[in-house]
């Protein structure tokens, strides 16, 4: 009987392990200082017991355990940053040393093994775009380089038209003719790793300014469609205006030929208008001459000038007396 007890214990342990279900390995990629969250896929019960191990560089160690509905974190590196609850594990402020495989083994309702592989990456740096343009008589061929200052991320290009991606290039270097680039086209340099991504873009104007063309030519090139439309409008509208004027003159000449009396009347009106203008001019010149003569006569006859001034004064005095008499009459009537 005593020999059967150890055998029964081994059998029970084997049955327990056989009844444990293992989930597929979940891959989690996060940047440094990020947060990794792993969902168990089941809820821990009141009687459940769990142990969490971490394997990194071939070294396996226990980092936490779940007993009596409470998690106890035994790993010093994770104590201040790991948060466990009944449905998920969360590690905050990630460091490069947090990378590794994490195993969560539970038994006693439910019997499960959950595994997730955490990889922590360095943050992606802002990409640097370098351009080189070789210009000929007809066009400029530009070479664009998408560069990573740290050489730790993969680089590729995305071509945008009106802010919508239209083409991708898996290479870090592309060659483009400047003539095929419109104002609405942009070339976006993308740096990325499995956990982070950064991008920078360059458009037609920046490319054109790095070439040998002046700012004025770049402006003309960017608005070449507008320039063509304006030129076409001028070339079409101007002849129409000149033609309309000529047609109007021809119609008037024909009408005058059909209606001689109307033509004579119009000519007479024009003549009268010219004569009236001449008469007005003659009257104005005569008035100017008379004023000049009067000024000279006053200079030659001072007494006559004084007499005229006295008459003006008497007239003003008479006006004042008349006003006084009118006011007295009004007062008497009231």
From TrEMBL:
Subcellular localization, per the record? Membrane
User: Which Gene Ontology terms of cellular component type are present?
Assistant: membrane
Tell me which UniProt keywords the record has, alphabetically: Glycoprotein, Membrane, Signal, Transmembrane, Transmembrane helix
Q: What is its main location?
A: membrane
Q: Which residues form the signal peptide?
A: 1-21
Give the transmembrane ranges. 221-244
Work out whether the entry's keyword set contains Transmembrane helix.
yes
What is the name listed in the Swiss-Prot or TrEMBL entry for this protein?
Uncharacterized protein LOC100488012 isoform X3
By which gene is this protein encoded?
LOC100488012
